[in-house]
Every structure is written in structure tokens, then in C-alpha cells.
Amino acid sequence: MTRYGMVIDLKRCYGCYACAMACKAKNRTPPGVFWARVLKGETGKYPTVVRQALPVLCMHCDDPSCQTVCPTGATQTAPGGIVVVEKEKCIGCSYCKMACPYGARYMVEEWESYFPDGAPRSTYEEYVKKEWEEKSGIGVSTKCDFCMERLPEGRLPACVNACPANARTFGDLDDPLSEISMLIKKGRGAVLQPELGNDPKVYYLPPR
């Protein structure tokens, strides 16, 4: 059985935000909503300061706390281990948003225009708004879904395709011979905050 996951090589990532923009364009997310984000920080002291980019997204945990706290069963684990939200069941209580230790959830109460107040919406924005409402809804929880509708077609998530540094690898964690499994084993892949017990399926290779 397939169990999808992702590896992000921090040696390759240089923080260009291509992943975030590709995700936003593909999923028609409104202003302020980034299912894929890039955090940046610095370590060390002059003259050996190191600036590091850290891409983050939904970790699609094997033991997701967001699913545990959901009172309606709207958060579910789909085939392939992908954590999804059924918008028809979601009541917008935000329990999942508070329970997620990775800040991967968003609540959109209403669509906000990308244009200044009073400016008429373009035909394209009207289209994007409709697409967002049909897929993700309004007043409900939203998050990354690994672009799951692309996977049966053999296509990769948009963030993986867009990365110019080839820092992202997507595949089957349960296949010991898959590229992603080999990278984790040989590259010392690790997850964020393992002590929380969520068992994330997004792994990181060390930056050095």
C-alpha cells in the first residue's frame, strides 16, 4: 500500500519561494493563505553567521492531532496517508487549527480581493474565487493536500515541480527502494518536532 511522503533537502533550498507561489497559483488561495511557506532564520555569530531557509507545509502525519480533535470527522486520512478536510462536514470550530503543531491550517471567513478597496474584480479573480469556494469552501478549515488530484495522473505536487533547485522529492515511504526512502536512509532524513508523536511524513535532509 502506498504511503505518500516528501523529502526536502535543506542543502539545496535557497529560499526562492517558488514552492509557495506554485502552491498559491495551483490551489487559488486567497490573500494571506499560504499552504506552502518558507521560514528563514539565522544561526551562529559573526563572522560565521548562517542564514537558512526552512520550507514548511502540512506534514500529513500518521498520527495527526488535527484529526483527533475534530468533532465532526471532517478531518480524515485518505488513501495514501494524505490528511484531508471534507468541507461539507467542517463546522469551522478551529479546533484542528489550534491542535496542529506545524501551523498548517487556515480558516477563510470570506474572500478578500487582491486589489485595493473599491477596485472592481477582474474576470480572472472572479474565476479564482469561484474555484477556491468550490474546492475549499468558506468558513471552514483548509490546508495542503499534496495536490492529491494530480497523483493518479502520475503528476507531482505543484511545489515539487516548481522547485528550481530540485530540493523536493515526493514518493512512497513504504517502498524501501523508492528515491524518497533512499534519501531518508542515506541522507539522515529527520522530521520536525518528533517528540510530539505526530509521526510526520515530510522529512528534511540536514543543511550541512
What overall form do the CA principal axes indicate?
globular
Largest β-sheet summary: 3 strands, mixed
Beta content:
15-25%
Rg, nearest Å: 18 Å
Which sequence of strands runs across the widest sheet? Answer: 8-1-9
Report the top-level CATH class.
Answer: Alpha Beta
Overall CATH architecture: 2-Layer Sandwich
Order of helices and strands: EHEEHEEHEHEHEHE
Helical percent range?
Answer: 10-25%
At the third CATH level, what is the topology name?
Alpha-Beta Plaits
Average pLDDT figure:
94
Domain module tally: 1
- N-to-C terminal Cα separation, in Å? 33 Å
What does this molecule look like?
- With 208 residues, this protein is an alpha+beta fold.
- It has one domain: Alpha-Beta Plaits (2-Layer Sandwich).
- 22% of the residues lie in helices and 20% in strands.
- The protein has six helices and nine strands.
- It has helices at 18-27, 65-69, 95-99, 123-135, 158-162, 179-186, and strands spanning 4-9, 37-43, 50-56, 75-78, 82-85, 106-107, 141-142, 168-172, 202-205.
- The chain has a three-stranded mixed sheet with strand order 8-1-9. It has a two-stranded antiparallel ribbon with strand order 2-3. The chain has a two-stranded antiparallel ribbon with strand order 4-5.
- The longest helix is centred in the middle third of the chain and has 13 residues, at 123-135.
- It starts with a strand and ends with a strand.
- The mean pLDDT is 94.
